[in-house]
Write a structure and sequence with these properties.
Layout lengths: L5 E7 L5 H12 L9 E5 L26 E2 L12 H17 L3 E5 L3 H8 L13 H8 L3 H8 L12 H14 L1 H4 L7 H14 L3 H9 L8 E8 L2 H17 L2 H12 L13 H5 L17 H5 L5 H38 L11 E5 L5 H19 L12 H7 L8 H5 L4 E4 L11 E3 L2 H8 L1 H14 L7 E2 L24
Parallel strand pairs: 1-4, 1-5, 2-3, 2-4, 5-6
Antiparallel strand pairs: 7-8, 7-9
Length: 499
Amino acid sequence: MSTPKPIITVCGTTGVGKSKLSIELALKLAEGQHGWKGARIINADSMQVYTGMDVITNKVPVAERMGVDHLLMDFKQPGEQYVVGQWVQDAIKAIDETHRMNKIPIIVGGTSYWIQHLLFPNRLPTPAQSLSDSVAQSIANLPPDLLELYNALPEHPPSAATHPQDAMLLHKLLTALDEPIAQRWHWRDTRKVIGSLRVIKDTGKVPSEIIIEQSKIALAPRYRTLCFWLYAEPSVLNERLDARVDDMIKEGLLDEIKELRAIASSPSDAVAAGPSDESAVQQTDYTVGIYQSIGYKEFHDFLASPKPSDKLFASAVEQMKYGTRQYAKRQIRWLRNKLLPAIYSANGGGGHATALLPVYLLDATELGDQWTSRVLGEGERIMEAFLGGETLPDPLSLSESAREMLTIDVKPTSPTEVLRARRKVVCAACTLDTSQPFMVEDGAQLEAHRRSRAHRRYASRDKKMHGRPAKRRVTVHSDVPTKVDAEASDQQDQHHSMA
């Protein structure tokens, strides 16, 4: 069996300098390192695939790309939906083409979910023409109201805050068809609930069935990959992110958001179909396509107001800054909780010297000379060793941040193990309205909840009313039929991934 061809990935949070590093590495490879004739950058940012909108999606200006080819960028219209499966296929084609040119593909972006599915094949379900026997039987047994809902799923997830009954009905439908997945999601998380239902309609199988099938397939990487995680201490990064939002506003952010609102209000827009007026903008699904971009939703009230005020503007700016900081936190969680466990599992515990996917954290907390030595210098040294088949350094030796962030607790990586994780349960004592049950994750979160002041207050009241401890009244989906547990995904179109 031939050795997989090499690629390089650059992951990390928004605003940490991934594009800068990838261009610098590409320029180094253009010097003819180890027989390669250079590199091409393949975009792995789910927002940068869209044409225009350069400010809101933080694209590197063409003048700053230093002549390095950037692929899978600026090729989709803002109203189009473009999902992980499509990107993976396009990225594979771009990688193959780059290898044929005797160049190294450098995959760069903050959508680590996409990169993970590029590295590890056989983790995306495929469409089917018919239903499995078990799904067909489950659908046949649905009561009329749930059958009607299954046959006409809403195009966009309803808001659990404003339409709790609709949200609960969707959750009951998922529970009836695939309870393992239903126990995975809070009934208020309508995006994930409806995403799981669409997996059933698209594949003809329930997600838990797909997970079991995946558990029989070894987690083998598609390429020999050098993984760089560009990292900055959150306290420092947050200041940079806040400053970048201010810069984006100066560079024309509001003009781009207005343009997006015009697209959303157009009848020809595939995402926000409806009348060509403000009502169509109101109906925009902020979880679809480029409308997920941080800033679009946050400035809605300001731009929609007949009398926009300084107060509304300041509130929008603060919301955008907060949303950006929270997004960076989520990106770190995905890297530590999803990507790293998968990489470590694929490497088989053999150590960095023999790893098919060596992963290195480069500390970009300090810029200037520190960037040159601790990021670019280290990155070039490791890249040269990787491509030259030389002994690689210990990833934990690079910095204290590397030692801390690359050391993780053992996480379940097989789909079967994931199936049993993070089940949601109902706390009856804290459920004030049985049609809207209070749910919390089983295990440590449930125990922490039981120790909370609010739970103790409700439990005390409950014990006085019913004469028994409320702790015994924690159940799994007390208001709906029950079965088991499973996992879908996160970020754009993550309902199409099972593990």
